[in-house]
Amino acid sequence: MEHATQVRLTREVFAHLDANTTALAPDVMYHATSAYDSPERLAREKEILFRKYPLLMGLSGQLPNAGDFLTDDYSGVPIVVVRDRGGDVRAFLNVCRHRGARLVEGCGKTGRAFSCPYHGWSYSLQGALMGIPDKDSFAGVDKADRGLVELPAIERDGMIWVIPTPGAELDADAHLCGLAPELANYGFADYHLYETRVLRRNFNWKMVIDTFLEPYHFGVLHANTVGPLLFPNLCLFDGFGPHLRETLPRRSIETLRDLPEADWDLITHTAMVYVLFPNTVLVMQIDHVELWRVYPVADNVDECVMYLDFLIPEPVETESARQHWDRNMDLTIRTVDEEDFPVSAGIQSGLASKAQSELVFGRNEPALAHFQSSINEALAAVR
After folding, report:
1. CA atoms within 13 A of residue 28's CA, in its CB half-sphere
2. If 0-12 CB within 10 Å is exposed, 13-18 middle and 19+ buried, where does residue 153 land?
3. What is the 3-state secondary structure (H, E, C) of 216-269?
4. Could you give the percent of the chain with pLDDT greater than 70?
5. pTM of the shown model
6. Over residues 126-155, mean pLDDT
7. pLDDT (tens digit, 9 = 90+) per residue, 250-268?
8. What is the spatial distance between Cα 329 and Cα 197, in angstroms, rounded to a whole number?
9. What distances in angstroms separate CA 71 from CA 12, 193, 278, one per listed residue?
10. Which of 85, 95, 259, 264 has a CA-to-CA distance to 201 between 20 and 30 Å?
């Protein structure tokens, strides 16, 4: 984040602290509970949000070398993303063009080619069909027509984006609606993946993202954990198209009042939350980045899966460093798993009672209202 932006946001924080206020939405929002428990609504979300929008697959540091790959299935499309021999990132359907078997699982490193585990058909890292065992039995098959099906992919400023629809057009600048320069300023290409954890929980996928979008609950739900480190019910909010930035000040930000503005470092004194529409949350912490990617599971309105990637500025080289990052990751998981997610599961089960038809988002929850409104608008735009 550019220093001028840090200064502007810090001034806004101090103004709210002095006036005992927070960022406010224009109005209270009433949000239909069917957004969380309607199978028809979920089908539309999967069709539009997870097929037509660029999805963040990860950061560049997760594929540092040629042959490094990762896979993803939760969009409903089997995807493999790989760094080719020329250093470019490519994405393909993770499907052999012979009998449709999956080429690879999980993440890892391949050699100069992918080899199908079923019959051994092989493909270059650029997706070209290279070899067919017993090729005489496939006389007339044009290898040029049987390469892997490529998906639109782009690596930009350390971020890897894929649209899970062949032939779609991917324009990262247009997608990010003016947020690209700010994200580029963080230098994500230099981060290293420490660990990825996968969590499956029994509530709607959007509730995971809702968890990050208001500090109104900090003083109650997190009163004995992270709550005392932050100001309850105080945030800044800025929208960038369907995306958003939420600034959550730490109490330590008060120390900046004694420093000249030229020395202000906002990132050290906040948790900076970005929602990259439709399903990604980036949390900029003091010394690391949390990358949350959230998906629905199959056709289940009340089940979701989360990838939590922990990204750190330097590779781990000592046991003390490993213990430090283990503690940080464990604290992150423990906080959401013991405090936030049980509440989300309770909300989901309460929806089944049909006790109410709508939820209420206060004016002090502007990021939450923006996220849910952006989904409503995206679904309404496609008939």
Report:
1. 5
2. buried
3. CCHHHHCCCCCHHHECCCCCEEEEECCEEEEEEEEHHHHHHHHCCHHHCCCHHH
4. 100
5. 0.94
6. 97
7. 999 999 999 999 999 999 9
8. 9
9. 41, 15, 19
10. 95
Question: In which band, very low, low, confident or very high, does the pLDDT at 165 lie, cut at 50, 70 and 90?
Answer: very high
214, 190 contact by CB (below 8 A): no
Nearest residue to 305 via CA among 191, 196, 158: 196
**Nearest of 354, 290, 378 to residue 328 by alpha carbon:** 290
Task: For residue 119, give the nearest of 139, 133, 138 by alpha carbon.
Answer: 133
> Which amino acid type is present at position 252?
S
d(Cα 291, Cα 63) in Å, to the nearest integer? 15
Per the DSSP assignment, residues forming a β-bridge with 361 are: 29
- Which helix or strand (DSSP H or E) is residue 284 part of? strand 280-284
The conformation of residue 106, written as its DSSP 8-state character, comes to: S
Cα distance between residue 282 and residue 234, in whole Å: 19
CA dihedral (179, 164, 380, 211) in degrees, to 10, reads: -60
Q: Is the predicted pLDDT of residue 383 greater than 90, yes or no?
A: no
Query: 271 and 248 in contact (C-beta within 8 Å)?
Result: yes
Task: Report all structural domains of the chain as residue ranges with CATH numbers, in order of start.
Answer: 1-52+171-383 (3.90.380.10), 55-169 (2.102.10.10)
